[in-house]
Amino acid sequence: MELYRPVTQPEYELIEQKGFSGFPPRSEAQPLLTMLLSCEGARQIAKHLYTPNGNDAVYVLGCMVDDAYIRQFPVQNVHEPERRALWIAAEETEIFNQHLIGKIHLMELFQPDPEERDIFFV
């Protein structure tokens, strides 16, 4: 299954340091690794994502995950149908990474408009 995630510059750099082979551990303030089922949903979030530095780029990443593994996570309906997501507990991030098929890849890059940004889950 292909999944998508909008990430800010700091998270992108950590993924890059891992050779695009996994997502970094979550911080205590981030209890979930949220993966979207739709690239369009990830784009919608990326276009309006609040970034800590205000003007950082936001990246939409895609990855393939083993179907048998990912089926254990129920689909969460958040706001709009395009934003259906899977929530992986922070402590499961490394296990999730072990079920990636191939590398994490860049789908799109956004430079959010500070006037239109909002706070979405990441």
What is the strand content? 25-35%
Task: Give the rounded overall mean pLDDT.
Answer: 88
Poorly predicted ranges: none
Query: What is the H/E order?
Result: EHEHEHEEHE
CATH architectural group: Alpha-Beta Barrel
Label the structural class.
alpha+beta
Largest sheet: number of strands, sense, barrel closure: 3 strands, antiparallel
Strand order of the largest sheet: 1-3-6
Architecture overview:
The chain is an alpha+beta fold and 122 residues long. It has a single domain (2-110), classed as ADP-ribosylation fold (Alpha-Beta Barrel), CATH 3.20.170. Helix content is 24%, strand content 31%. The chain has 4 helices and 6 strands. It has a 3-stranded antiparallel sheet. The protein starts with a strand and ends in a 12-residue tail after the last strand. The model has no long low-confidence stretch (mean pLDDT 88).
Protein traits:
single chain; 122 residues; alpha+beta; ADP-ribosylation fold; 3-stranded antiparallel sheet; 4 helices; 31% strand
In short, what is this structure?
The protein has four helices and six strands, in the order βαβαβαββαβ. It has 122 residues and is α+β, with helices and mostly antiparallel strands.
